[in-house]
């Protein structure tokens, strides 16, 4: 009986000595960043192929800079309705957000690019008609309502800091669409800023201001996606917005 009690005491003592080591190990687990959105966080056209996210995409650059585990859930071609549906019903997305320490959201670019191109074609170079058609398109769009729901869903799943990226001008300076987009981007991005302001812990990353008129450096030629340098800029403003510095 005494031997049994002695053995039990040894086991308990061993357990109490090993517990701090276990807690220390758990304490060293890296924090995580989950990136949601379209081809921009995916890093489209930067890797050897577009089957997997490029390691030079901004979520990974943030992860390298701040020692974070990164889960990149960006999907090329996705629009706001697809991301919203995933957050509402796809357990992969929901569980990723639940366990995230930081969240980055970049979505809406594909739709806004599409309406710019369609409106430019229909207006035939008439700026007044372009502005009118564009305002009609934006007024009838559900993109901002979807963005509101995306942020609502994300905030319901986590209290982690969230960074929302706005829309940069993807057109080179020698493209007439660059100058068509410039006047309306403040209107569009004003909506992004307003949406971010509605939520606690949601910050705006101003990609439009960061890229400015340096598309030759930050946007792939004959493309609309960020170069490696552009992705680095997106990483820098994301780090600032999340307060990781």
Question: How would you describe this protein?
Answer:
By secondary structure, this protein is α/β, with parallel strands linked by helices. It has two domains: 1-30; 31-242, Rossmann fold. The protein is 59% helix and 10% strand. It is built from 13 helices and five strands. The protein has helices spanning 2-27, 39-42, 58-66, 80-89, 91-98, 109-123, 127-140, 143-157, 176-181, 185-197, 207-211, 215-218, 228-242; strands spanning 32-37, 69-74, 102-106, 162-165, 202-205. The protein is globular. It holds the Pfam family Lipase_GDSL_2. InterPro entries: SGNH_hydro, SGNH_hydro_sf. Residues 1-24 form the signal peptide. Residues 35-233 form the SGNH hydrolase-type esterase domain. Keywords: Signal.
Annotate the secondary structure layout.
Blueprint: H1 2-27, E1 32-37, H2 39-42, H3 58-66, E2 69-74, H4 80-89, H5 91-98, E3 102-106, H6 109-123, H7 127-140, H8 143-157, E4 162-165, H9 176-181, H10 185-197, E5 202-205, H11 207-211, H12 215-218, H13 228-242
Parallel strand pairs: 1-2, 1-3, 3-4, 4-5
CATH class of the largest domain reads: Alpha Beta
What is the fourth-level CATH superfamily of the largest domain?
A: SGNH hydrolase
The proportion of residues in beta strands is: 5-15%
Helix fraction, binned, reads 55-70%
The poorly predicted ranges are 1-26
Order of helices and strands: HEHHEHHEHHHEHHEHHH
Number of strands: 5
C-alpha Rg (nearest Å): 23 Å
Instruction: Give the rounded overall mean pLDDT.
Output: 88
* CATH A-level architecture of the largest domain: 3-Layer(aba) Sandwich
Could you describe the largest sheet, including whether it forms a barrel? 5 strands, parallel
**Structural class based on helices, strands and sheet pairing:** alpha/beta
Tally of domains = 2
> Could you say which overall geometry the principal axes of the C-alpha atoms support?
globular
Strand order of the largest sheet: 2-1-3-4-5
Q: What fold name stands as the CATH topology of the largest domain?
A: Rossmann fold
Distance between the termini: 60 Å
**Count of runs of 4 or more consecutive helical residues:** 13
Keywords: Signal
InterPro entries: SGNH_hydro, SGNH_hydro_sf
Organism: Planococcus chinensis
Domain SGNH hydrolase-type esterase: 35-233
């Amino acid at each position: 009986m005494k031997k049994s009690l002695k053995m039990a005491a040894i086991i308990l003592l061993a357990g109490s000595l090993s517990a701090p080591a276990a807690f220390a190990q758990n304490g060293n687990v890296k924090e995580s960043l989950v990136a949601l959105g379209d081809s921009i966080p995916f890093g489209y056209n930067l890797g050897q192929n577009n089957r997997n996210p490029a390691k030079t995409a901004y979520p990974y650059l943030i992860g390298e800079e701040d020692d974070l585990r990164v889960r990149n859930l960006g999907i090329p071609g996705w629009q706001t309705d697809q991301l919203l549906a995933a957050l509402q019903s796809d357990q992969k997305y929901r569980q990723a957000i639940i366990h995230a320490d930081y969240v980055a959201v970049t979505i809406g670019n594909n739709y806004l690019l599409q309406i710019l191109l369609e409106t430019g074609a229909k207006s035939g170079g008439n700026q007044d008609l372009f502005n009118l058609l564009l305002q009609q398109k934006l007024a009838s769009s559900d993109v901002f309502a979807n963005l509101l729901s995306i942020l609502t869903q994300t905030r319901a799943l986590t209290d982690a800091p969230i960074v929302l990226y706005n829309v940069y001008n993807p057109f080179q300076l020698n493209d007439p669409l660059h100058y068509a987009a410039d006047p309306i981007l403040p209107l569009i991005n004003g909506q992004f800023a307003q949406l971010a302001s509605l939520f606690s812990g949601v910050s705006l990353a101003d990609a439009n201001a960061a890229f400015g008129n340096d598309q030759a450096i930050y946007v792939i030629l004959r493309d609309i996606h960020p170069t490696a340098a552009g992705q680095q800029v997106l990483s820098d403003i994301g780090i600032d917005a999340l307060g990781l510095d």
